[in-house]
Amino acid sequence: MYKDIIENWRKYCIKDNFIGIGSTRKAFKFSHYVIKLHLHPIGHKQSQNELIINNVMNKNGLHELFAETYYVDKKFSIQKYYHPLELIDNQSFEINTTQHATLLPNRYEEVLDLLDKDFDSFDLKDSSNYGLNEEGKLIFIDYGMSKKLYEREWVPLAESGILPQIDFDYCRVCGQKRELRMYGDHDSDRRCYDCGKE
63 with 52: CB under 8 angstroms? Predict the structure, then answer.
């Protein structure tokens, strides 16, 4: 099925299929798949890292903790879809191993350690990086950002206003307190994504 997506990805990356946007990638759901469009070359690097990590975890028998990455090219990647964790008060939250113990899959702590030591992974406990599998347990859906990539490439571009940082504040259009995409310190356009700011 995903071979059809590779050939016809543009017709699936439409407003009705939109499910989320980060600073470097934009996600669309079609059938049982997620198409992650690369908004910036860093997004492509994240997707490549996800493919590498997924392949290694498959060999180590830890594939059940990761959304399978099927395909990556410069424009997009294709991954298995899992329902993301719900936001709390319109924002993501940090996974707490005590508070969220019922959500933790077997070998979760082992995988966190491997991601940190072997792949230099960044931001491993942010809820936006997880979905829920069929058993209601956490599964990594966004796991390609490394500390090196973040510090050397993402941070300088975010500080210069090229890539957006996320701020939690009131949208000037809808009036709701939401995550806002802000481009540098001098960005005064305080609209949320739903109100038109990408």
Answer: no
